[in-house]
Amino acid sequence: MEEYSEKQLAILKVAERLFADQGFHGTSVRDIAQEADVNIAMISYYFGSKDKLLETIFRYRMEASRKFINELLENNTMEPLEKINSLIDRFINKMLGEQYFQCIMSREQLNSQASPVRDLIWELKGEMLGLMQPIVTQAQEAGIFYKDVDVEMLMTTLFGTIHQVIPAQHILKKSAPATVMNDDEFREYVKKRVSTHLKKLFKAILTHEF
Amino acid sequence: MEEYSEKQLAILKVAERLFADQGFHGTSVRDIAQEADVNIAMISYYFGSKDKLLETIFRYRMEASRKFINELLENNTMEPLEKINSLIDRFINKMLGEQYFQCIMSREQLNSQASPVRDLIWELKGEMLGLMQPIVTQAQEAGIFYKDVDVEMLMTTLFGTIHQVIPAQHILKKSAPATVMNDDEFREYVKKRVSTHLKKLFKAILTHEF
DNA sequence: AGCAAAGTTAAACAAACGTTTAATTTAAAC
DNA sequence: GTTTAAATTAAACGTTTGTTTAACTTTGCT
């Protein structure tokens, strides 16, 4: 658990945005330095290398994700379906709230070559699966959820849908209702739409009710 | 509709694999030339530039996708749900059959900067949506499908799930049944698993039956 | 004030990048 | 067999890449 100076945070923030928008190899350290308004040498000075800068971004975000997971583990008073719905909403909020990082994840998980970053990704995904699995299993044993469900694939659908929505937002704007929207309103509109869709999907497949 | 020589096809094939595995900017023309066993200059000679090489790959694959779409449009004798199921299976087959290209699409659709390639992607996605939309609408009007369904989001789920499965295959191998599998058997196993999952999901949400 | 460490800078580094050149070989046409 | 165009090559092109250097400034401590 390290702390970062303002300047370091500025670099991390700019780098995250540029890596998301143009890819890791599509972004030069000079681009980052210029937009963050620091000297090029500071990136190596602070983070060691461009690779380690990416790794730092990952560890930074993943630490937050771990906390996020642990918080979710504490909700014990809810009904199974309420738990699932809460989980869906929290996932949507989390992932759409850090879209730049999610873009980087989308990209990096495609790399065929093994790397520390790729390992971190699948480690985290495993933990997320471990979050939903027991809820479903428990509800299945209690006879509340239907037995014949592939939870791993359901998690894949959850991730996949949200990851697909992130770059699709340009398009969703066109099919949105004609009412004028500022950025915040549109963000809420998207969240609501994904949330409604995923909750319906999960409820239907898990409980066979509507 | 152009034709390509063997050497050109060799370059396209190698480039597609490398772009998928390491990203566009992560792959050098020297890498491509070496693996395709041609001189570096041939790439500029044939395709003009590295950018146009990527664009060529896209146009090549997209032409096939267009044909694919037109074939799907001709199935008129089936029941609505059969049509959907057939569509799901064909999508899975298509996309898992060209995984390298789908990886490139996954990456390129994240680019924030406008480009010919990005336009092509969303154009194609629109066409795919236009493929499912009328089937659903027609069945809704006939009272066979439930009214309250967000087809655009459903299509997002379809794409998202499959796009998420492609890089997740390493992991799926671990949770696969212990029976020994060669590559072809595993590929079939994955297809079957995704297919079963998606069909259940679509049937539940569209018909409210199981 | 004086000193040591940390922070910051412009400049330079070698390596890798995409692309082009000019020379040579191959193939096809007459 | 000669000619013309296409294919292929090794080498060089000028940039850009990530990283390092060495000089300089700021900061914090005694």
From TrEMBL, chains A, B:
Keywords in alphabetical order: DNA-binding, Transcription, Transcription regulation
InterPro entries in alphabetical order: DNA-bd_HTH_TetR-type_CS (IPR023772), Homeodomain-like_sf (IPR009057), HTH-type_TetR-like_transc_reg (IPR050109), HTH_TetR (IPR001647), Tet_transcr_reg_TetR-rel_C_sf (IPR036271), Tscrpt_reg_YsiA_C (IPR013570)
Pfam families: TetR_C_4, TetR_N
Residue span, HTH tetR-type domain: 5-65
Gene3D superfamilies associated with the record: Tetracycline Repressor, domain 2
DNA-binding region: 28-47
GO terms for MF: DNA-binding transcription factor activity; transcription cis-regulatory region binding
SUPFAM superfamilies attached to this UniProt entry: Homeodomain-like, Tetracyclin repressor-like, C-terminal domain
Iron as UniProt keyword: no
Designated name of the protein: TetR/AcrR family transcriptional regulator
Organism: Chitinophaga eiseniae
